[in-house]
Structures are given as C-alpha cells and as structure tokens.
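This section describes the prediction task in plain terms. A model, or a person checking by hand, is given the sequence of a single protein chain and must write out its three-dimensional structure as a string of tokens. No templates, partner chains or ligands are provided. The sample shown here is typical of the held-out split.
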Amino acid sequence: MIATSYRRPLLTACLVFTPFSSGVAQLTYQSPPADLVKILEAPANPVTSVSPNRRWVLVTIGDPRTVSISDMADSAYYLGGSKIRANPDHRVENIGIRSATVSSIDGKVVRSLEVPAGGRVGTATWSVSGDKLAYTTISKGAMALEVMDLPSGNVRRANGGGLSGKIGDLDWSRDGKDIAFTTTTSTGTSLWVADVGSGATRRLTSPDLNFTTAHGNVVDDPGCNWLNGKAPLVCRLWPANRGAAPRSSEVPGGVIVQESYGRSAPARTYEYLLQGPTDEALFDYYFTDQIALVALDGRVTPVGQPGIHSRVAPSPDGNYLLVETVQRPYSYQVPMDVFPSRTEVWNLKGQVLREIRNSHVAEEAPSARDAVLPGVRNVNWRPDAPSTLVLVEALDGGNPRTTVPKRDQVSLLSAPFAGPAKPFLQTEYRFGGITWVSPSTAFLVDRLSRGARRRVWMIDPSAANGGSPKLIWDRSTEDRYSDPGSWVMALDPRTDELAPLRSSDGKYLYLRGSGASAEGERPFIDRFDLATGKSERLWQSAAPNYEEVLQVVDPDASRIITLRESPTDPPNVFVRDLKNKLLAQVTKLGDPAPYFANVKSELITYTRADGVKLSATMYLPPGYDKSQGRLPFFFWAYPREFQSADAASQLVGSPYEFKRPGRQNYMMLLMHGYGVLDGPTMPIVGTGGKEPNDTYVQQLVASAQAAVDKIVDMGVADRDRIAVGGHSYGAFMTVNLLAHSDLFRTGIAESGAYNRTLTPFGFQAEPRTYWEAPEVYNAMSPFNYANKINEPVLLIHGQRDDNSGTFPIQSERLFAAIKGNGGSVRYVQLPLEPHGYTAIETQRHLLWEYINWLDKYVKNASPRAATAATGGSLTPK
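The expected answer:
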C-alpha cells in the first residue's frame, strides 16, 4: 500500500501552478509562496572574527546575497576568462550587515556598532594591532567611514571635503595611523586616505584607478597596497591618454586563424574566452594599467611602462616589486592566467633588475596526475626575509613518468638579484609549499597526487640543503582520521604577516584540527614540540558538545577561543581556560534559523554492497513523525573520487552539531512536506591499481541504492517517491543515476556536463584524456544513454556559465537528445547567470520550479509498477 502524502501544518499558502508546456517559451520570473520567500531571504547566519591581538571577537549578522537581475544586466564584457564591467560599479545599495557587536574575550565589554536607522554596516576591518575597528555605514544612498577605538568605545567619523560615492577596500597602515580606501562614483575609482587621529580624509588620486583590477578581476593583489605597511602605496592606474573604448565593427576585417604545429598542448574547456580582434582590443583597453607610487600628499609617481600587469607584489621590505606582465600572442583557447607572460623583479623606479621567467606561448597545464609545466612555475617572496624570492621548477621536465631521484628544485634569489639563483633544496615528490617559522625552522611539504601522499618535513633554512630534513608526517591526503591539523597562525604586527604562533619560550607551535574519527568529528588543539617533532594533545571536544578552536589567546595556550554548540544549543563563542579548566561564555547568540527550529536532523550511516561505509545528514519536516506516513524524499549529492576504500568509508560530520538546514532551494523543500537527504556520500574508489572512474557507474548506483535502502528501512521514506538532484558534477551524477537505475522518480540537474567527449582533456580528478580512455569517457557520459532515461528530468543552466567544462551547450544537447528519444524533460535557461546563481529573481524562480516539478513527479505522482518501486537496477538499463 502506498502511504498517504504527509501534509505539513506550518505553511498554508498554496502554489499557483503554471502548466509545463512543450516547445520554446519565455516565462516571466515566478515566485514561491510568501512564507517560503521570507525564509529564503531571512538574515544570514552570524559570522565570527577574532581580532589580530586575540583580545576581541566581532560577530556580524548580515543580509543574504540579494543581487538583482537588473544589476547583472549592466554593461559587461567577457574577455580572457573574466567578466568585467564596462563602467565602475558605483551603486550604494542598502545591503550589508544588519547588526554587529564586538566583545572582549573576558566577556566584560560589549561594543555595538551603530547601524543607521533603516541602513546597514558595509564592511568592517581590524587594525593591525587589533585594538581598533574601521567600518563603513550605509544610509539613504550614501556611505560613511567610522573608526571605533575598542578599549574606550569612542567612535570617530572620517570626514573631508568631497568624500562621496561607494567606499571600499579599507586597508590599515601597519602603525594604525592611516586607513587607505577607495571611493567609486560614475566617473571612476579614486584612492583616499583617512587620518585615524583627526578623522580627516583626503583624496590622493583622481578617479583613475583601474577598476578592472581593483575589484577582483585580477585577483593576486587587487587595488592599492602599502609598501612595507607604510606610504607610499603602490597602485594600478589607467594609462595616460587612454581614450575611448574600441568599437566593434559589423564588417569583418579578415578570417580568424589558430595554429599548433607538433606541440602537445592539451587544454580543458573554458568559458569567456577571446573570440576575435575586437575582443583583443577590448582586452588591451580594460586590462592595461600604469603601476604608480602614491604618496600621502597626493604625489603620483609612475613606475615602469604601461602593461597588463596580472601581478604586482611588493617585497616584504617594500624596496622591490615582483611584476607579472601578460604579453602577446593572446590565446583564444585558454584564459588570461595562462596567456604568454613574463615575470620580473623591478625596483621602485621601474627598472627591471631580473627577468625570472618568460613564456612566449600560452601554457596549457598537462592533465596527468603530478604533471606540471616545465621551467620555473612558482615565484613568491619569502615572507620572513626582506627581499628574497623562492623559485620552484621541475627537475623532470614536468613529466611524472620520467625516472629521476628528485622531482622539484627549490631555489632562493635575494637582492640585488644578480647571478644565478642559489639552490635551496630538492624534493622527491612535487613541491607543496613552505611554512616559514624562524631563520632556523621551516616546514616543507611535498606531495604526490597518485597515491594521495603528503609529507611534511622540518628543515633548517639557514643550513645548506635545509640541514637534515626531519620527516614529521607521511600520510594519505584522503585519510581524514590521521589529519594532524593545521598550524595556529597569528598576525605579527611588526611585519603584518601571518606566521605560526610560538610559545613564549620558543619551544612549541600549535595545531588545531577537526578531529575526524569513526565517532564523528571531535575538534582539538595540540602542542607541537620543535625539538622532538612530536605533538601533545592539550584539549579535545567531547560529547555532548561540538566545539571547534577559533584561536589561541596567549603564546602558551593557557586559554583558547572556541565556537561551542550542541544539538540543542546554538553556536556561541567561549573562552576555555585550559590551565584552570574553566569555561566562560563570550557571546549569547540565539537560534540563527528559528524558522527551521522544528526540523529534525540526524547524521546517519550505512554500508554499500561492496562494504564501503557511507554517511549522510537526514532532515525531516517540522512536526513530522512516522505515524503520519512515509515521506516523499529529495537527495542532493556530489560524488568524490578516492584511491582507497578505507578513506572513502570515513565518517564526515558530527552528531553533536547544532544542525540547521541551509537555505538552498532543496533545503526549502523541508517546509513543503519533503524529507531531504543532504550530502549522501557517493565515493568513487579506485582499487587494484585501477582509476576510480573505471567503475564509476556501478559504484554510483550502488551508493544511491544503499542510501535509498537506509531511509526506507528507517520507515521515513516512501521508496516510490524519491527524487535526486545536484549542481555541476552533482548534476552529472543525477543524470547518470536516471540513465542507469530506476531508483528515483525524477531528477533535477543544475549546470552539469553530460557529454564527456566535450571535455576530452580531463575533468574533475580524471587524469586521462579521451584518447587514452575512450571507453571510460563514453561509459560515463549520460548523453550516450539518453534513450534509457525514462524518468522526467528538469535541466537548469545559467546562460553565462563561467565554469570550465560546463558550457550551456551541454544542457542544450542533452535536452535535444532526451526529447528526440521521447523522454520527459524541461530545460530552464537562466539569463545572465554564471555557474553559481546569484540574482534574487533567479533564486525565487528556481524554488518555484523545484516545488512545481517535484510535486507533479514525486509527491503527487501515480504509483509505479511494483518492480520499479521496490528496487533499483544495479546494472545499466
């Protein structure tokens, strides 16, 4: 007998159903019931930040992301892998932080940031010392800059003639006397500075900052930077005599030619690429900048020649610049971060002191595991030295199949950058980074993707070849249970750099980790002995609470700042005195999502047919119990590859967390009478020397079968009314499950890739090309099995998808394939949306689509034949 549909008492608004029709049509944006909209757009969960001096805790509650579709419709260009605005974003919108409080860690002082009536706080930034907080306010379409002195509570508003526009990019000088910031108006972006003592502000530049690089399109060092924490600032301005933007011509001036002769150049698929000469001209126009030094009196000194500088990184002592410049010929196959480029060291006059690397062709990274580009591939300043570069290059030509005793060479090159780089050390595996602790102590990581190995070595940077490297950890990166944690970092106010926190006697460092285990996560804090290389557990979270370490208060770790919760207590900040075994509550935050208060959650575990252990978080609607009948269910998942079954079986999550659903569309289904299985693990395991994807379909279906069986056996799910969904690789999973099993009544697939021949040089963790493993690519492509998809499928895709591999054509062709084979399919195209959906109109409409679709094909669906409803096919249909 089929159980009756569970009807929730909480929401009473009814949906107005618009019939799904065949053919092509534009549907105006729809909205779900008002009570669901209210939840969807409720304030975001609290965000916690600890001050650099570890004496204060800032807690903010902000608006959800509410970009409108009209915002996204602003004039923009899609060039070299980036979306850029044709005009600066100068709108001052009443969106931001609704409330903010700063509490001393002893709980005795609480400061509230004043939020204008009906307005918002924009952003907040700690001073380097941690005793002051700068923040912006938004009120009636205008912005202001405020500075709070935390010990006294005094607030001073920065003011100055002509200060107007959108304020952003707050950046404290190291001594705390000045705050640099930008203002953006319709005419452009300017650099300003505020004197913290007097509150006076002054504009340092005309509106000539290159807003293309200043607001995140070139991400290495956006905006302006203090040199060594003090004036002048190094900025990127528009070149002089920039002129008007190029205009595209309707009449082609010739053909477009791309060439490659005998050079292996595999490339994954990308969006937003250059398309022709007009795009090249626009790319030059919007990305070219003039590096300049800007003094506090407003003097602007150009440095070097204009160029497309994708990186401008000052040395720690502020005397040099590491500059990466994009150069021609541009590529129509890859984004700008792998265009031909040269990396150089400049002095502050713009003179080139040393060319570090120079590529004359676009560089396509190889797809094989552990394969890298030949030559110098990594150049960075050593953070604990005044002006020393760390260079990394392959000793095997970048080819992991080459038999060599060492894979990578790490070299050092110091000012004045003359002569050859000094070899520092060589690594047996690929170089994975260095954490610099002191002149005589650092931690080197080398790693291998194949085998998932990661090793950490303690070295002596002052000795030749790192002294005698001492192996500290050698472990599988997939093994969460053996994870030693990560270093507790603290900001050094002398250098404004993060470094591992050392004990007052210099003998110890500290590690904090999630403490994953077979019983669930139990976060911890360890003390690491630099002499022995051993860790000692200082404290670990214990039932019935889940408590994670945010920061260590003092160098000897006698006190720690934690975020503590339980299944019935919402997260709050505490200070735990380890020496005296005391616990003090700092914040008193309530339920961050009271509308979900009666939703039931449970971390469940179960086992796949091959013995791999799986887990998921199960949510049940508010007010539900089993006496009301079995529920319609929705699964939301994302597969992951593993190289061992043991690692794939490890438990993710903790039973002691204060579980509240997020406000993703699929979670909102809880308020509409559905159960939700969130994140059921879908491991794809490589065994016997084989790649994981060699048996992708079989393992995927087996994981889904185990999850279905579990919730049915628990008595909460109706086997005949279960749907599955996912985004990106989760969408790929969804359509494969529909093609190769009868476990689900329908599926919702967002922005996926369904034909792997369109991503022939690898995808996700697949290291082989299509030509190396055509049978795997073909077997994994649900497009090839469109004739076997006999369940309805809802396809959704952003028309401006910017993710590698997930071109909208993937959904277009799958829609055509299912339609052509007589299947049931609806394809929703989202105007202006990238891979992740942002507009509020889009979010509302998607929830409307979800509810309409699932109510029709799951909740109110007619029963299936008994053979389909009681089991699933473990082999392709």
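For orientation: Residues 1-20, 214-221, 869-875 have pLDDT under 50 and may be disordered.
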